[in-house]
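Posting this for the archive.
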Amino acid sequence: MSRVGRTPISVPKGVQVHIDENRVTVRGPRGELTQTFHPDMTVTLQADHLVVTRPTDQRQHRALHGLTRALLANMVTGVSQGFRKVLQVEGVGYRAELQGNKLVLNVGFSHPVEFEPPAGITFQVEQRAKLITVEGMDKELVGEVAARIRRVRPPEPYKGKGIIYQGERIRRKPGKAGKVGM
């Protein structure tokens, strides 16, 4: 039995779950998320816990069991607490700023790069530490938007300049200093 799949999901106070066949809607203080799951997976609400069960022990059902449970847990966490990714801008002259709700990046190009946040995503910028915070209730969307921002100027291994996730370690390379014996 899947360890992830068989773990029940506790539903906190203030979060309502509506199950309609294989469509689950989770409503909470931050908003509402709806997702359709595979028809073989059974989602039930028992007391204040969500439980996912599978019909057989086939390989596909085992995989879907853990996936369904993880997606449901992310939905419950998203509508109650939300998700956040923090990016750090490294480099001389590199900076990020907000213009309205739009994120504007100046990262060494001849033009500023602008990001319009999709629905449900908000940006925060801390100027002194050059930090960009991407917040939202959909974990997949938060991660995708953060990855798109990072893709504008990925970190390079020689000087360490670029946009990195907070806490990410960049493997540095020495450069041309290795040409001593010539």
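Residues 3-80 form a domain with the Outer Surface Protein A; domain 3 fold (CATH 3.90.930.12). The radius of gyration is 22 Å.
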